[in-house]
Structure formats: structure tokens, C-alpha cells
């Protein structure tokens, strides 16, 4: 049923009716002034059996009333296309509240408002006001997009890449049905083999993450998150919601098992690959690249390696097998440069797929009339043993023919060296993401019973209780205690202001380092007193090392999250940080180090200390889990956590209680 | 003429002959065993008038002899397809030397070896052994690729994007004709409006840069450089040459006016945009985005801004003009969200193009039957005033129809939000690159007549002579002089080992900072003596600030290059550096700061100092130009150059002479 149908060609209500006519069920059109249409919702409902879906193409002010008529007439699902709701100011918010009230009171499920609809090509169910959707093919990909426009743009781009859809949905404002609900539905949808998720904002973070976790365990989820640059103002005009942190959203989706892509081209390449055979979970799958031309092969290899995927050197046995087929003129260690593909290409592919270090095979070649690549790959039998991706460039007709043949053989075909590399990276990311997800989260230690106010000494007592190393120290209430502490601790000490209300001690002159003598202690205490100190912390200086920052906070969307970064302003400004939601598994914690682009600094760089990832994972988990067991901790930060030759040690600890 | 022609379908010599048959000139085939072919080169040459091009499809060992026969018979140009030359070990090197000898002795121009050829679709000149090239359309783009395979892959990808070619050439081993020669040729080639350059290695850096400078002044050059990850071993097997530094190559190409892209998808988007109207040189062009759908518009805006392009807020006058057409439901400040395009779309585009802050207009929309976008854009007249890019997604046939209409109207059409964003970024990069290139280089100061050995004091005397600030200091030969220096300089001083043979003073314990008292000086001198010091430098400690690294060295490929980075290991490991070739203009020097991702640290970050870019440019130019005026300086490094509240000051100076 279309409410607000139109007979004027091009109008939303007309195009929507035209799209829905393809569905195998009677279509009822409602427009009080439309010739041959029902004059009202109630008249239309009375005209026959129950209505599966009401599509409302009426303006925002008329929507709630029409929706209520549908719901009260027994309709269980509705699509609202109009804009002009919460994104459009006070009047729009009023209309939205009215719609939400109908949903709450009647239980009708609602998609929208402010969306161009959804489509299920395999059932010819096309609830879209973009007529081109009539030609979309059915296939294995479900698109779940924040925006109706992106849903359509992605559907058409997938169509161009020869990939069909099981479902395409644009959520729009998402006042009822949101991304999490659709993802949960897709867990058991047999038509869907891979899910493409586009996000602008996230309303219910935990529900979304739970859905992605459940879904990615059974089928790949590829996620494109908008908002790398500041697009908040425009985004809010679109959805009426604040943009969620791009960095946090990406990190926690990844932790839940999603494959992240940077743009829609990457999304198309990723779903093309993942609609085929999936890699088994693995911490570092090895990929072999077989190329018919060295130059494009170099482009692929360069992009694959830049994405962090390993091209392992093939074994001598594999290379011997290849050498039986190929002349000794080309590189054969991985990548394997076959030269122009010819007879024996299938044997090369087969040998490479059998290499023990190879978990997946990517093949690139220009189309050539002399060799039928999909047939050669099929003959090789490789695709029965490992995932195989075929990358092909050539005249459009040739590529289309090979794509059809590859589809028959069940082998994903991707056009373009870079797209092939992105496809390879997605295949590998799906495997590494699931590897990290496959482990249970580490249960939190019970709260050690400490209470605030959380000055640095109390904060470090908490760390001690959690098993996080801290330096020897003393709380000192007067000069005599401070001098005694210096004597007891020996060597150089740090002398710091002790006050739970001062969060940035350095900025108020509250930190004095390298104090060795009673005279120096006297000068430090003079300065601290002048800065208002009543108590001071005297603490042994730590050995030199590399400084890290570990922090946990409550994200407004996703709840408790944990952050790891390198110390120093450069790392901070370059946003070289790793983020995870809490609770997390040991693997997820250990993986935070791998996220840091400057991680090399932590592994013996220039004679520096070498990190034990498991030891750091223990610290990370302990700090993050604090937020789970104590609701009175809003935030906890260890800055710096110094990595020394004998392990990590927390040099500061800030615990913040809710405001 | 094809030497090594073949009658066996699929063989190189057969496909090559078939491709060349399309050319409007007699084709002579040579094969001693070929039926109906000439038995020898000399027989073929005797069979008619002169031969324009000899294509050699014979194996490497037979190439030099065949080439000599051609050259001595009057042929002036040859293409050698075979591999098996320098990239294939000792025997191959021998064959290559023989070919080079023929080139040197006869002056014949040679493309290859190890390439699949070249093509000029507009003249039906197709010297390629990939048959699909027969269908390539003539157009404005010249592809100059290191590899024959990449030349073909790019040609087919451009074909798919609806873009034709003026020339496609794969250089292969490039023993005679290299990239620089082809680029120089293209400066005056009227069929070529934009050049796509693919590089794996660079042999003659200065010639390449000179060619790019000349070419980019008259038409855009888009450059794709391979080698972001370590692909050196495979690359060498391909071309026989060492891979050039990816970072340096990209930086100096950019300085010469090229637009850099990261992959071949970016290359296609960039040439699509730049085949249209070019922006005027500008330090920061403003782009307006008009979108028919908010969601895809957000993807475009996000990617455009991430690429560093500004979307300026439209003026009130422009917004008032737009508001006459559009309902007040959508965002209209830039991006302009028109909602589904309808009547009046042309007036929106026109108003946006007239905005004084707008230098180019990008438009995105899904194809809709109700609106003819290319026609609306043409009606707007915007493309006559500023560059206009049209981004369209929809059913493939609709997109193809709109592409054809857009081509008629002279408006580049790009499919996909991300591709449109990349096209916008390329348009802007072409304008900013030319702005930086448009200034003459700063002539070097004459050499101040100093000589080594270059210990730190001598190095700083050089900096003083060049006008680079250094701290007050004294060279001290004994304890009495050091104590006198401490008294004279006052306050804390640095005491350093002075020895031109020690490059890393800190690592040998040669640096003592914060020395305030005669006792501390005594301890420092004890330690330095123990480390082998005979002379020491006593120097006033600089104020705190942000540390930079400035260095100049002689690159084996490009000659003198200058490097600017932030101090600290994190910035180093994250490779946050700017590189330029020397000599450089003030604009090029000032632009180095913009290249640093962490540049925010230099502009009052957390109460820190604020950089005067012109002042830093002076330091950079002075340091870089040292290499131009003194061949006895191999390398000079100022590490750190500290940015303080009162300006930059060089805290160390290392000058290295040739080994």
C-alpha cells in the first residue's frame, strides 16, 4: 500500500508505486485526490486482505496520523520516506515525537523517516523511489546503510562490479528500526553471505556491537564509517544526531569482528572477495600472488603489503614445482610472475595453493584471448583448497565474459590491481578479526575495596591492587617525612604535589624530578608549598624507557572503552592510538599494540626496551576492567606507563569520579 | 615491420602483426621460416620505401643483431618486446650491453626491451601484443608507464571510465627512451591534455624533474609511484634496477608540479577531472559541493576534507539565492544538499559557482529520470566560469548515457562518491602545486670560505654565516677555559665533546646538559675526558620549545635534497617528514611545514611557540643551498633546530664531507 501515491510521473508517490508494482501481491494506492485510487487509508484497508507494508509518501506533518490509521487497521510494517523531522528544527521534532508515539503505542515497525527505502531483488520487493532498482540482480550481499542515498549508490556500484544483493536498506532517521535490528535479522538470512554496513551515527552502541559480533561469527561484515574529517554540522542536518567518534566507532567495530574499509570502492572490493570462500580465523594469514604481468603485480604486491598483509616466501618445493612450468626469467618466490599466462598456468596456481605458508591465492592478469583464466583456475583445483581471488583487467566485454565464467566457478573476480589488493586485505582482515574475537573476554578482578579521594598515591594503590607495577613511594605530610623518604628510597626521587583536585600537576609546577640531595629536596618543597601543596609524594625515579599512555573512559555511545597511545605530543597530535571496548579478551588487548603505527619503538628500537605484549595486555585489561566493577570511576588514566628494561611501570595514576 | 612475426595465433609475433595491421601504412613481416613473410630484415627493407618502426619480437640473444640490421638499413625507431636482458642475470646483461652498443653507434631510438609496446589510438598506431587495444578510443590522456602491463591495465581502466587516450606507452627496461624523453615530447603534443605517469624506478632524476616541471606548467601531470612497501626484490627482477626511494620520488615530483595519487583508481579519477578545465594556480582553492542526496554527499565531503581541500562556507548572498529555489529543509552552507534534484537545480549550481570563495564546483547525484543533470549543469553556465565536476551513480546504462551527454558538454563525469572526491582533490592539488612552482628558486648565498674539519663549533660558524641563529658558545681547550666560559655565559650551560669524527655525541656520553656550578662543570669535564675529549664546547642552554630536524643530503637519483621533520623518535618512526629537491623557492620551503602531519605542534600547541613560516623557510633554504655551493659538503644536519618563543635556534650542527 502506498499512502500519498501520485499519478504525476516522477513524483515520489508515483515512482514508489511503480517500483512496488513488481512485487507479487496486490498494490493499493491511497490519495484523496487521485483518480482511480483509494480516498483514504481506511478505504484501502477495507478493500481486501491484510496489508504487509504501508509506504508513506506524505509530508512530515501528515505522517503520524496516516501511520496511526495503518497501525490501527492491522498493518505491522511501514516505511516513511519524507524528511522534515528531527533534522529540521523544532517543528520537525514535534512531528517526529508524534511518529515515535504511534510506534510506541501500536508496535508497528517503522523504517525511516527520511529514507528512499529498501529492496529485496530476489523477491522483487522494491520499496524505493529510485526506478533503476528494478534492474538490480539478486545476490549474496546485504547493504545496510545509514542513508537511503548511500544504499542506492552502493547497490549501483555493486551492480557495476557484477555483484547482486540479498537486501538493500537505507535506515534514514532510524526512529524504530536501526542498524542493530537489521544486522540481527541477517544472522539467519540464508540469502545473505556478506553484509556491507554504512554508518554515520550510532545510537545504541552496545546493541550494534552485539549484533556485529553475532553476525561476523557466521558471515563477514564490512563496515564503512563516515566522519574522518569534521562533517558534524552537515551530518546533523541529515540525521538530526551528533556524529559518533569516527576513530572509536571504527575500533570497536573492528574488535567485534567487522572488516573496516576507508571508502565505498574499498567496500565493493571487500564484499566481492568475502562473498566467496572465507579464510579460517588466523592471527596472520599468508597470501600468495600469481601475476601474469610484473608491473600490475608490483602494484598489487605494494598495496597488499602496505595494508599489512604478508606475502610469505614460497618453499623450495613449491618453487621447484613452479620451475617445471615457467622459464627461469621471472620472479617466482612470491609474487610469482608467470609472464604472459599460457599453458601450465593451472599447475602454477595449484602448486602455490599447496604451499604450507599459503592460506589464500590472489591472481592478476590482463585478459588474453589465448588463455581462459577462470577455466585455468578451475582446472587447478586451488579454489577447493584455499580462497582464490581473481583480478582481471582488459576490454570491458572481455572482463564481463570472464566475470560471468568466474561466477559460474564460484571464484570472486575483481577488476583493477588496487581493488584486488583491497580484496586480499579484506579477506585477511576478516580472518585476523575473527581470530581476535574467538577468545572469551577476561573476567574482571573484583574491586579491591579502595575509596577516594583519588590523589596519586591512592590511584597507585589501586594499580598495585590490580597488579600493575608502580615505583616505591611515600606519602609525606611534612619536611621531615620528605627527607626521611629521600633517605629511605635513596638515589634520585620525584617529588610531586599530592591533591586529588589537581589533574595536571606539571602545569601548576607540581612535579620536581631528579631530586638527590636534602638541599634540592628543600628547594622542591619550597616550590610545592608555594604552589599550595599540603602533602607531597616522594617516589623513586624510574629507569629510562619508552612512555605510553593508558586510559579508560565511558564513551557516551559505546560505554567503557580503553585507549593505548605512545607518550609525547607528536604521537598525540598524529592520533597514533589504539581503542577497544571493555571487557576485552587477552588477544584483543595484545592486538592494541599492533594498532600503533609507531609500535617499532616498543621493540628494542635503538637499544631501547623490548615489550612483552602479554605483560602489557595484563595492564591494559586490569585498567579497562576498573570501569566494569566500579560505577563510581568515570575515567582512569596512567600517563605515563613507562616501558623499561624490566617491564612496564606506572609513573602516574589519575582516577576521575563522575561529575 | 615486425621482426620475428608469427603465423601461429596467440604468439607475440602474430598478435603484434595483427595489431599493427590497423595502421595506415604497409606492414612487412620478417621470419626466416614464415610462409609468405620476408626471410630477413634486409629482404624486408629492400621490399619498398623506408620503414618507420621496427618491432622486434625475437628472443634476447638475437635482438642486438636484428636491431643493427634495421638501423643500418635506415630504420630510425625500434620497439623490443623480449625480456631476458639485465633483469635476468649475467647472460642477459651481456645481451643488453650489445643492444645499448647498437643504440649508441647507430643513433636508432629504442623503446624497451621488456615491454608490451605502445599505442596511439587517434592514428590507429597500435604496437602492442594485447589485442584488446584495437577498441581503445582516442582522447586527451597520455599514459607513460614504467611497465607495459601497467600501460595496458591503465588504458583499459580509463576505457571503462569513458576516457580516451592520446598515447599509451610502456617503457620497459628503458635503455634508450625513458620517461623524461616521452614527457618532453608531450609538452607540445596537441592531442594530449593530461599526462598519467607511472614510475617504478628513476634513472636520471634531474632530467625527469625538469621534464615534469616543463610539462606541468602547460598541462597536468598525475603521478603514481610504486614502492610504498618493500617491493625492491620483485621490482629489481622486473626492471633490473634498484627501486628509487618512494618518499623522495613523490616529494620531488610534487615539487615539480605533479599531482600525486596513491593507486590506479586515484589516477583514473584525477585524469578524468584534469582532462577538463584546470584551476588557476592558487595556494588554497575553495570548492563547493552540490549534492542531490545527503548520504553520498557526506561521503564526498568527508573524503574531500580528509584530502586537505577546503569547502568554504558560502556567503549570505549565495545562500539567499539558493533559498529562493530550495525548501529550507536541507543543509545549504556548503555542501549544498538540494534534496532530490528537480527544476531549479541549474540555478543552485549557478549561484554556487558565482560565490566569491568558490573556485570549482563538484556535483553529486544519483541518476533520476526526472532530471537531466548534464543539461542542467550546461544551462547553469557554471562550467564557463569555474571548473565543474559531475559525480553520478545509477544503473550502468543511465550513467553511460549521462557520461556521453557530459562529454558533449565538456564536463568531466566521475562515477562514485570517493572517485569524485579524489577528482576534486586532484583538481585542487594541480592548482596548489602550480602555485608553489610559479616562483623562482632562491639563489644560494656564496660559500663563506670556511673549511673543516667540521666539529660542532665549525658547523655552527657556518650556520652563523648563513644567518641561522645559534646559541652563544665557547670552544674550550682546558678546564680553566671551560670554567671561564661558564662564568661568562652565566646560567645553565651545555658541555659537549668537540670532535669532528664523532657524529653521535649523545651515544658516547658526550653531552652534559644543565651544568650550573663549577662543581657540576668539573664532573662533566671528568666524564668527557674519560670519553676521550680533548676540546669541549660550552654553550648557553636554549629556551624550551619544539624540536625540529633539518637536513640536506645528496640523493643518488635526484641530487641535493632537503629534509624537515619533527624531533623525537615517534615522529621519526611515523616518517612525518617533508622533502624537497634543492634549489627551492621560498614557497616550496614554506610548503614543507604544511607537509608535516603534526604541524599543529608548531603553532602554539598547548602554550608552545608559534612558528613564523617565512623565518623557517629562510633557515631551510640556507641549509639546503650549502650543497649547491660547496661540493665538499656531502651532508649537513641541524638536529635539533629548536623552535622557541623567540624563533628557531640550531642546537647542533653536523657537516659531513664526501667519503
Automatic annotation (TrEMBL), chains A, B:
What's the domain of life for this entry? Answer: Bacteria
What molecular functions are annotated in GO for this chain?
A: ATP binding; metal ion binding
**Which keywords describe this protein according to UniProt?**
ATP-binding, Nucleotide-binding
> Which SMART domains does the entry link to?
CoA_binding
| All copies of domain ATP-grasp, residue ranges | 460-496
**PANTHER family in the record, alphabetically?**
COA BINDING DOMAIN CONTAINING PROTEIN, PEPTIDYL-LYSINE N-ACETYLTRANSFERASE PATZ
Q: What is this protein called?
A: CoA-binding protein
